[in-house]
Amino acid sequence: MNIKKLLILRLFFIFGLSFVTHNIYEWIPSFTTSVFFPVNESIWEHQKMIFTTTLIWGIIEYIILKRNKMNCKNVISSVSLSAIFNIIIFLIIYTPIYIIFGHNLIITLIIYFITIALASLVEYVVLSKEKHLTKLNVFALIIILFIYILFGILTYYPLKIESLFYDRRHGVYGLE
């Protein structure tokens, strides 16, 4: 398997796994699941789903690369950067559409699929580097930890920004 095929698999794996991770907190409500998975239908909470599914893929990707004796030196940085990029691009594209037109599941899924594809390109560029990006890999681990701390804090103490943190379906911010 080459990297391009792996990243195509990535696209469909992350998209499909998101349907499962979307509901994990509802199935297993706990502090831990509240940090890693969405607790409501706000835009912010869905960023956890994007980030976590991408990192789950990163673990699987590392195993596949290792077994096929392919370059896996920069998996941590490539997966982390693609997850962050996916969140940023999703927010840039989706938030204005959501504010103007409201929620539409089909449009949301199309945008999500496109952002996963774009993030896969970022991952491809970093993963293709032959040079071991040691400092970037260490920095990526720190950023992952920071992002999950931020997810946890903002789940329990959400900012009162309606377009990002408010769950219109349930009328709540965070875990209120």
Which runs of at least 5 residues are low in confidence (pLDDT < 50)? none
Radius of gyration: 16 Å
What is the residue-mean pLDDT, rounded to a whole number? 91
Q: What is the N-to-C order of secondary-structure elements (H for helix, E for strand)?
A: HHHHHHHHEE
Largest sheet: 2 strands, antiparallel
In what range is the share of β-strand residues? under 5%
Please report the distance between the alpha carbons of the first and last residues: 46 Å
Helix content: over 70%
Count of DSSP-assigned helices: 8
Strand order of the largest sheet: 1-2
**Rough outline:** globular
Quaternary class: single chain
Number of domains: 1
Q: How many strands? A: 2
Write the layout of secondary structure elements.
Elements: H1 3-21, H2 24-27, H3 31-36, H4 43-67, H5 75-101, H6 105-127, H7 134-156, H8 162-165, E1 166-167, E2 172-173
Antiparallel strand pairs: 1-2
Helix pairs in contact: 1-4, 1-6, 4-5, 5-6, 5-7
Give an overview of the whole structure.
There is one protein chain. By secondary structure, this protein is mainly alpha-helical. It has one domain (3-173). Helices cover 74% and strands 2% of the residues. α1 packs antiparallel against α6, α4 runs antiparallel to α5 and α5 runs antiparallel to α6. The protein is globular and about 50 Å long. The N and C termini lie far apart (46 Å).
